[in-house]
TrEMBL record:
Its EC number is 1.-.-.-. Pfam families: FMN_red (PF03358). Keywords: Oxidoreductase. It comes from Streptomyces yaanensis. Gene3D superfamilies: 3.40.50.360. Signal peptide: none annotated. This is NADPH-dependent FMN reductase. Residues 5-147 form the NADPH-dependent FMN reductase-like domain. One of its GO terms (molecular function) is oxidoreductase activity.
């Protein structure tokens, strides 16, 4: 049976972005558990503004839709801008209208991460991420994470704050576990959980 596939979308164009670092941390954990991870971050999500009248998708839009269509689970990470997700990520999610005939993200587990200086604003952005995931028929996993904007990550995709790392571990593991249950029932989910434990 093929590995679980995860699409990881990061909504920041900023160099040294904490939201991108948090996404890479989650992606690395998923990879260690045996998942195939396709990460689209920053410039890779710099799509033209969504226009429902456009009939010819750009190459970047085709890559996005292909990654989401093939995925069993999705990770979303965004900086908080004025209490919501970044426009970059919201526009990318608007482009998923191209998956309408296939049910958008129907049946896929979705893990959401926001980054903010202010916990209230971060919680609002996290709520908008989860609401968009559910509107696209995805299954937002129970754990959602607000990461403080001053959290440090190492060049090898590790988090220096144990509490934040633990929360990112949980949201990643839930995406993998739910994706495993969708793919192959309980036996596959047990295999995924076992792989996660072996990766620790």
């Amino acid at each position: 049976m093929r590995p679980i596939r995860i699409a990881a979308l990061g909504g920041s164009l900023r160099s040294g972005s904490v939201s991108t670092a948090a996404l890479r941390y989650c992606a690395a954990r998923a990879h260690r558990a045996g998942a195939e991870v396709t990460a689209l971050v920053g410039p890779e999500l710099a799509l033209p503004p969504y226009d429902p009248e456009t009939r010819t998708p750009s190459a970047a839009e085709r890559r996005l839709l292909a990654a989401l269509s093939a995925a069993d689970g999705v990770l979303l990470s965004s900086p908080t801008y004025h209490g919501g997700m970044s426009g970059l990520l919201k526009n990318a999610l608007d482009h998923t209208e191209g998956l309408a005939t296939n049910g958008y993200l129907d049946g896929r587990s979705v893990g959401c991460v926001s980054v903010a200086w202010n916990e209230v604003a971060g919680a609002s952005a996290l709520t908008s991420l989860r609401a968009s995931a559910q509107a696209l028929r995805g299954w937002a996993v129970p754990m959602g994470v607000v990461v403080r904007a001053d959290t440090e990550f190492t060049p090898d995709d590790m988090c220096t704050d144990p509490r934040t790392a633990r929360r990112l571990d949980i949201v990643t593991d839930q995406v993998l576990e739910f994706a495993g249950m969708r793919r192959g029932g309980r036996d596959t989910a047990v295999e995924v959980v076992t792989a996660i434990g072996a990766a620790l």
